[in-house]
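User: Show me an example of a complex going from sequences to structure tokens.

Assistant: Sure. Here are the input components:
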Amino acid sequence: MNADLKLYQSNGSPNSRRVRIFLAEKGITVTQVPIDLGAREQFADAYAAINPRRVVPTLVLEDGTAIGEVPAIMRYLDEAFPETPLLGSTSIEKALIQMWERRMELEGFAPVMETVRNRAAGLKDRAIAGPHGYAQIPALVDRGMARVRDFYADLEARLGEQPFVAGSAFSAADITAFVTIDFATNALQFGIPDTDVAILRWYEALTTRESFSA
Amino acid sequence: MNADLKLYQSNGSPNSRRVRIFLAEKGITVTQVPIDLGAREQFADAYAAINPRRVVPTLVLEDGTAIGEVPAIMRYLDEAFPETPLLGSTSIEKALIQMWERRMELEGFAPVMETVRNRAAGLKDRAIAGPHGYAQIPALVDRGMARVRDFYADLEARLGEQPFVAGSAFSAADITAFVTIDFATNALQFGIPDTDVAILRWYEALTTRESFSA
């Protein structure tokens, strides 16, 4: 399906990747507009006009509406293209998938991001993404690693009970968890612990999906 | 409207208040089950079985389904009781309200919470809500206050352009912003700056709604 949508994104951005996989799973093709984070293009006036928070990704609709924040972009796509729902079909499914997707973000994705941003030499006064500069706090690096350890332990318990993060079916919660793990592996050299057999089984199965190369 | 729902909550919890106001705006009456955070009742086995993250609030449905995380609870209520939608009616409205509600949370509510939890004497090893204990980091208190200042400045700019946080209509984003401000005022003694005339005008108007005493 070709939609008249533009996704402002960066190939190296894990938040962008959450949306790219979501689109691929739904079979929606959009126009990708690259934003060069290395060249600080997200702070240029042209991009700030589209996303005042100056973060990627942003989805821009045909009428010019700009949608920022990954869960809001996912929400739009699942509402406007209801085939292959990734956020659930019934009221209960929608609530539980949103709950689990959020937990993966708050307990996994956000701690990995916080650790990376508080230790990267190039982000000294950019410890939080967005329009405001905040100095790094070194103590957040150790705490972040502890939180990632707890994330793996909790996810192992969950996937020992259910085949997918939100329960019996694949959903957006799996996408966020998977991107979190690749991000932790690549940016923190903190991959899935060998003993986490349930996570390893689930991860292997997801890598066979074509969308996960997006 | 009387729904056969139970809300496990605490009167002093700002996250619980977000849901109480949401319910009142929609005119839904639920059974409230108080959880005594002062007595650490959220860590008791009975509550952990309902919400493994051990945080309030949790919405429990007639069939026993337990929904945690405020935005997920709001989602369920707006789907199951579509009258008086607070998360939008069209795909675009739903996405933009979710985006703005999330920004109020990430840029306002979360920094206030982080500041409170990292300085309260009674929360030394409980700097993050949830099942895992993390030590306080004093540097987060100063940074948190700076973030709350930036939140007020950004909200003043937004409400100078639009009557409500998400645009022309009242929505869940206003509830989260309002609860954030009361929380900052009461817990950090950081109320709306006198010069923020747009926020003051909006805040005054919201206090006249009956739901905001919930």
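The lines above are the inputs; the final block is the predicted structure for all two components together. The two ends of chain B are 16 Å apart (CA to CA).
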